[in-house]
Amino acid sequence: MKKMNVMIGTLLTICIVAMAFKTANQPAWVVPEKYVSMANPVKADAKSISAGKALYEVNCEACHGKKGLGNGTKAADLKTVPGNFTKETFQAQTDGAIFYKLTEGRNEMPKAKKDLPGDNDRWNLVNFLRTFAPKK
Ligand code: HEC
Question: Which of 61, 89, 114, 118 is the most interior residue, by most CB within 10 Å?
Fold first, then answer.
């Protein structure tokens, strides 16, 4: 009986820790200075934006949503929030910072460099993410 109680206690502790982990705030995502100041080598013209859009629809939309609000069909299953690309705070980041985050990923955000090893593909994505900026 004592053994049973210890087991139940252990299981409860594991559940509580798991729940705390799930609801924990996402810590700030620190971008190395080298990337913050990195210039975007790809001009944000119609060709780049439409290439970025096509990649987004296949690789990103399931989590980030069609309008970049972070409400894709897979979002509810995630433990972390994908962020909102239409927010001023998101758009205030440099192209290099956004490039770094999508390239390297973190936790549930996959490393885009794995499926999209070409730098230009990922810069096209940065250029497309800019189209979610709130209209002034
Ligand atoms: C499996 C779901 C998933 C997919 C697929 C995904 N993301 Fe994410 N993304 C996330 C999550 C979750 C975060 C938040 C990560 C964190 O803060 O730890 C995130 C964060 C980001 C951020 C940083 C947001 C911010 O507020 O600064 C960018 C940029 C981004 N994703 C771009 C992309 C792009 C581009 C693709 C496609 C190549 C993509 N993501 C695919 C889940 C996903």
Answer: 61
